[in-house]
Design goal:
The complex is a heterodimer of chains A (265) and B (403). Chain A is an alpha/beta fold and 265 residues long. Chain A contains eight helices and twelve strands. Chain A has one domain: 3-Layer(aba) Sandwich (Rossmann fold). Chain A is globular and about 60 Å long. The two termini of chain B are 20 Å apart. Classes of the chains: A alpha/beta (265), B mainly alpha (403). At the A-B interface, helix 2, strand 8 and helix 4 of A face helix 11 and helix 12 of B. The complex binds adenosine-5'-diphosphate and magnesium ion.
Amino acid sequence: MVEAEKIPIVEMHNIKKNFGGLQALKGVDLVLHHNEVLGLVGDNAAGKSTLMKILSGAYIPDEGEILIEGKKVHLTSSWDARQLGIEMVYQDLALANNLDVVANVFMGREVVSFRLGPLGVMDEHYMERETERLLDRLKIDISSVRLKVDSLSGGQRQAVAIARATAFNTKVTIMDEPTAALSVAAIEKVLDLVRELKAQGNSIIIISHRLEDIYQVSDRMMVLRHGRKVCDTPVTGDIDSFREHVVAYIVGARDDFAEEGSDQS
Amino acid sequence: MVKADGSKPSFLKDLNTLLQQNIREWGMYIALVVIMAYFTIATKGIFISSRNIANLINQTGYIAVLAVGMTLVIIISHIDLSVGYLSGFLGAVAATAMETWNFSAATSIFLIVILGALAGLFSGFLVGQMRIPAFVATLAGWLGYRGALQLVTMSKGTIVITNEAYNAIGNGYIPDISSTTFLPGVHKVTLILGGLTILLYIWNAINSRKRMLSYNFKILPRHLFIIKLIFVSILIAGIAWILAGYRGLSWTAVVILIIVLFYNFIMTRTVLGRHIYAVGGNPEAAQLSGISVKKITYVVFCSMGVLAAISGVLYSSRFKSATTTAGTLFELDAIAAAFVGGASPSGGIGKVTGSIIGAFVMMSLTSGMNLMGIDISYQYIVRAMVLVAAVVFDVATRNRKKI
Ligand SMILES: Nc1ncnc2c1ncn2[C@@H]1O[C@H](COP(=O)(O)OP(=O)(O)O)[C@@H](O)[C@H]1O
Ligand SMILES: [Mg+2]
């Protein structure tokens, strides 16, 4: 791959985050290259969601720095991150069930056709066409974009959440457990969607408990344990040896960064 | 839905799917028609008389206006208990402004609208900024404004309003062209307005249907569309005819119409309305999408305060006075109207037009039962049953959709 010579799209250095007395992250490094899918795994409470919320601007780290395409940035809100093209699909679906697909995709970014003083009048037709185009492009199958989200299946809702995150010139899409609580068929659809996004040039970080998901779609994976990175490796070999290898890191039997937590590899 | 499936469109099938999709909304309109028909028969036509309908509209005004604001509050999953006494208190302030300080009607109304907005912002501050549950924060308002109302009316008990321009808002009717030859005894301007409304409605409906067709929206099949046009036109014509038979369109009705049209526009067409629904549906998601939940909370409570002021104007002008008990329990009537009108107690769902219909359903019950001479105790029980029925209907239809 040529990505080694390029500047990574995301670099996080020595990220630390405490919640009260709890050290959720103890100095984590993360690199994401252009058009790469990075799998992020680890046991419950390892700090995966916290690390990603820092990258998406929802949390502010106590220490450490973040570089986007080689430039140092300070993310103080999800708005900041969004301006830089970083979007996160939250673990607990960030959709409004009382609204239709169009309204959810454009939530907070409604397109205005004209203004009456402080009131922006929405351009429904434009938003509807764009939503249809977006769902088509991502090969998401929903009969009408005017359906309310609460009448969709779990898989369709997850697809809408992902589509929404990738709708607006997104460079980095972060997905926190996108396959949790989905049927097998729905999981396949979501994984197809991840592949489709990669094919269209997106860079993606995906968190999952399901190692087979990570194995199927990721180019590289890293393991967090107790707020530290313990493994960072390309995804290779067959699924069984991959699983065995990764589980050893997750449970703490192996650790590539044992001596100095913030060491560069 | 339209012709995509290739099957022969069957009228009954279309009607059936349509009813299923909008059962809650249609149910309410049907309920209103049934209630009105029943009382018309039971009172041998007195209920539907021009005079009674004109009265009914003027009586509903001050609750309907509150119900509009309450709908927004309920959509963002809050409640506002303070607005009844706020309405009474602000009416008393307007009365004092005109009678004691010699303010003009317009200045007095302007003053209490500003005060209402400030009161609303204060509730918004307690709820949105300090994160006090709305029930508690506005209960404090309920107590406080009740005290304030008694303070203002303390010296006289009742402040009589002598300003005629002001009193016309609650009692007056729009002017008519005088003619002794053409349709004597009928309010011609009201008829003309009714006719214009029908034309405007049909023009608008056809236009938006064309637009929706070109964008492949789901639309009504042609025959149902025409039936809907005819039905609504007859309804408007009927209302216009009834009102024209008495003194025409009242100023209160004009105020209600303007407020409903304005709020309906905001809630269905503007970014602000969309954000209000989003905050109601999922506040965390809205916040993460860059919508300020705090700002929306301020805006919604502020609008509620302004509408409480307008409600205060309608009530005090109607009775040409401010009393110590003005506004008592208005908030509960407004909340009931919103729920009967289809607002969901769990937030995110509700329509301004629905709440207005809800207000008219509740007021029709009161008016009809009064005409029939039914004791007030039974009236409360009947209204209670209607409220329960509406909410049960909601829960039932919503659960069925999930399956
Ligand atoms: N907002 C918060 N306040 C307090 N503790 C938190 C907060 N968010 C996460 N934590 C704690 O930080 C640790 C890491 O959590 P998290 O990043 O959610 O783990 P993961 O996503 O890997 O399961 C956990 O012990 C969790 O309880
Ligand atoms: Mg997590």
